Amino acid sequence: MSKNTAIFYGLLVVLSAVCIGCDNDFDALYKESRRKMTFHDGMNFFYYANVDVSIETNRDQYKNLLVFVHGAGLDASEHFNAAVKAIRSAGLTENTIVLAPHFQKEKTDSNYYWTKYSWKDGRKSINAVPKISSYSVLDSLLIKEMLSNYPEINTVVISGHSAGAQFVYRYSLLSKLEESIAQEIHYLPLNPSSVTYLGPERWNAAKDRFEIPLNAPSCPGYDTWIYGISDVSANEYDREITTDDILSYCPSRNVTIGIGTLDLEGQGGGDGCEELYQGVHRYERAHNVHNHMDVFFPGHSHRIIDVEGVDHDRYRMMTSPEIIDFLNEVFE
Questions:
Q1: Boundaries of domain holding 166
Q2: For residue 4, is pLDDT > 90?
């Protein structure tokens, strides 16, 4: 381990022990890990990372890139902390970059910003001309900021928890990243509250089968974007993409849902018919969509990992033995 890397992780251990759960203090203590990418229009996007792209030394040592997207709390610093801890537990600190993007809901420093929830669906920013999709921001952050400066990276894992997991799951359906880079990409949504189906069928527990819901007309949005792909061109990332496009490549993408076995709630009373058609709670929804892939897309590359004894907790999910094993499996 390089001297600078050892110092960074040593400080992280000390500060994490003092500051778990206190977002404002954590942001202040970790200001040295907060970075800024300036886009061609002069707008900024902020993120946390354990590397500084302006420093050119030791770039060849990094082989892996782990991205961890925050949830509705917009607490990127805490997600950065959890991801760094996971990499330490996996024994991958020497060669792994950790990146936590920050999708802000207000303007602070000529930055792109969204509403509290619009960013998670790939929607365009509130400000800037032209406005930019949150998915396009991630494309640029990965391609122009990270992979161009760290050419030895071989594997990218894009993960997120809760709302961040919804971001990652839907990004895996639309992403043009696979067409642009040579690196192997894995999508790892953890505890998503809802997902996007590749067909109109939903699980009917009473009949023990998948079928198009008989009362679907009473919930017309259940199979439209973001819950289905019947009108996927409504997305704000790539208007040209079609349902056939997604069906042609999505089943072969490396998508792994991590779900806590105790995540037995929905969205805290905010579930609509679209979510409830997917299942009663997050654990059921994750397994239902995976079973849908098994039934209608045999031979697909999607996976599901049960994380035993964990509820809707980003830190315990990312640092769980099951997710650590996954990271060791796909990373060098």
A1: 34-330
A2: no
- Asked if residues 172 and 202 have their Cβ atoms less than 8 Å apart, the reply is no
Name the token pair of 246. 């997604």
What is the total count of domains within the chain? 1
The predicted-structure confidence for 193-243, as pLDDT tens digits, reads as follows: 999 999 999 999 999 999 999 999 999 999 999 999 999 999 999 999 999
Q: Are 219 and 196 in contact (CB under 8 A)?
A: no
Backbone angles phi, psi at 88, to 5 degrees: -65, -45
Instruction: Give me the pLDDT at residue 28, please.
Output: 52
Q: Contact at 8 Å (CB) between 89 and 9?
A: no
pTM: 0.91
Residue 260: closest CA among 192, 307, 190: 307
Is 21 within the bounds of a domain?
no
Residue found by looking up tokens 């640092």 in the block: 319
Q: Is residue 13 part of a domain?
A: no
CATH number of the domain at 56, please. 3.40.50.1820
Residue 92 lies in a domain: yes
The verdict on whether omega for the bond into residue 130 sits within 30 degrees of 0, i.e. cis, is yes
pLDDT surpasses 80 at 25: no
Phi, psi values for residue 171, rounded to 5°: -65, -35
Mean residue pLDDT of the chain comes to 91
CA distances from 74 to 30, 115, 315 (A): 16, 11, 15
138: its two tokens: 């991630």
Question: Residue 309 falls within a domain, yes or no?
Answer: yes
Per-residue confidence band for 269, with pLDDT thresholds at 50, 70 and 90: low
* Amino acid identity for residue 166 in this structure: Q
Distance CA 319, CA 51 (A): 21
Query: Residue 170 to residues 50, 73, 139, 297: CA-CA distances in angstroms?
Result: 26, 19, 14, 18
**How far apart are alpha carbons 292 and 202 in whole angstroms?**
8
Cα angle, residue 180 at apex, residues 153 and 146 outer, rounded to 5°: 40
